[in-house]
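Exercise 7b. Backbone tokens:
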């Protein structure tokens, strides 16, 4: 059983380690103004660790014994070496397991076959932390050429916040981005020990003030169904319904598809885009009624 003295030592150890780091060391922007404390602030550690400032504060004050996954995340944020990491776990009374590498996630064959058959419907397969695992030509024509993005950077949340074209594509970019952050926050609760998810949150928190604000709001949401309006540079305005199919053999993979009501301008726009994506890329607009 961990004594109060051990928890106090844990808190002092964390305080000393964060004092050794600067915002620049962990990729955070320098504020430019005077800092009341040396090193990182508590809220900065909490932000990068994807936990609340209150939770981290209680840990550092010796009032809470954190879970092993949270300890592992804090160790990564504070750039602890193996010996320091072992000491951190010992003071918390936890077994110090070495971080396990998750296997690289590959699209399930049945989802790939289904995706290949969707010639007139845009679709893509999203994996853990919204990594883009597979897509069809129409999804690439609708959103972006995913194949041009390095595999390690091929993530839908990152794309939303780092590609300026995405802000023009979605008529309600803020609503889409907020919802995506809430979905990512839900996944972070399920997999608090995922180092790539932690790194993604840290990266986007540094790069985008909106992401930093919305992540800190702690809203959560599941990916279900909905409607989005897209301002497509080739097909014009598209009002599309989206739905998800969860893979039974790997629940962390979801097939996301977009569709439009037959007979609507958006339906015709998708048909036009499909022809454009398969090679007839003439700079023309989709047919509309006079």
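Sequence design result:
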């Amino acid at each position: 059983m961990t004594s109060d003295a051990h928890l106090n030592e844990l808190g002092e150890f964390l305080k000393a380690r964060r004092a050794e780091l600067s915002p620049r060391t962990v990729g955070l922007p320098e504020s430019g103004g005077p800092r009341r404390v040396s090193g990182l602030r508590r809220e900065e550690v909490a932000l990068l660790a994807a936990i609340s400032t209150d939770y981290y504060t209680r840990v550092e004050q010796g009032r809470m014994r954190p879970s092993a996954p949270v300890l592992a995340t804090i160790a990564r944020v504070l750039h602890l070496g193996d010996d320091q990491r072992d000491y951190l776990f010992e003071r918390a009374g936890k077994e110090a397991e070495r971080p396990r590498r998750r296997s690289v996630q590959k699209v399930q064959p049945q989802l790939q076959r289904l995706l290949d058959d969707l010639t007139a419907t845009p679709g893509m397969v999203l994996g853990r932390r919204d990594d883009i695992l597979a897509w069809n030509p129409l999804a690439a024509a609708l959103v972006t050429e995913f194949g041009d993005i390095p595999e390690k950077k091929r993530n839908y949340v990152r794309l939303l916040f780092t590609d300026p074209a995405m802000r023009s594509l979605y008529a309600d970019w803020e609503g889409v981005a907020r919802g995506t952050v809430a979905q990512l926050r839900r996944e972070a609760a399920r997999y608090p020990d995922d180092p790539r998810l932690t790194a993604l949150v840290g990266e986007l928190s540094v790069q985008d003030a909106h992401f930093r604000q919305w992540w800190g709001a702690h809203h959560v949401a599941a990916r279900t169904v909905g409607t989005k309006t897209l301002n497509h540079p080739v097909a014009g305005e598209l009002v599309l319904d989206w739905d998800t199919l969860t893979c039974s053999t790997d629940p962390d993979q979801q097939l996301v598809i977009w569709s439009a009501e037959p007979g609507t301008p958006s339906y015709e726009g998708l048909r036009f885009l499909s022809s454009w994506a398969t090679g007839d890329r003439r700079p023309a607009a989709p047919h509309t009624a006079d």
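Instructor comment: The chain has two domains: 4-92, 109-277. The chain has 13 helices and five strands.
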